[in-house]
Fold:
Amino acid sequence: MSDLLWADVAYFFDSDLMGALPDARVPDASLEDWQALLDLVAERGWKYQYSEGEIVLPVPPAQTVLSRPADAECPELRVWPSTDVLAIFRFHAAEEIDFDVDLRELQGQEQLDVSCRFLRDIGRRLGKPVLMDPEGDYGHPVLGFEVEADRVVLLAEPPLM
Structure:
């Protein structure tokens, strides 16, 4: 069963209205949460690629990634929960796990289900909400994994047309 139905959320997946790369995040994260995320990616068998600048490397422990010098290039982890859906995690700070998804890849019920499963898997593993804000509108989530509901829910209402 789907967490959300495409007909109910299509507005929030319009890249012209919401920006092509909405900001997904896990607030109030920790170093342990980052490591749990890295472990989850490996356990699920999702395709992934870790890089620092243009250099592709094996994924180091979260402690190593997050203790890099302040002037070092920000590492990123590209994760494909399915062949046509990509999430890009950036290791800015231990206190928040932040990543982008491309709304142009998330069109229709099948891709929405992949996205919801991905957010749900992360939220369940960490026991924390996973929120999606419109691009450039940090702090105003439109949907996300809600721990108490144990599913992805709408957190905003689309405007009446």
About this structure: The helical segments are 6-9, 15-18, 31-44, 62-66, 109-126.
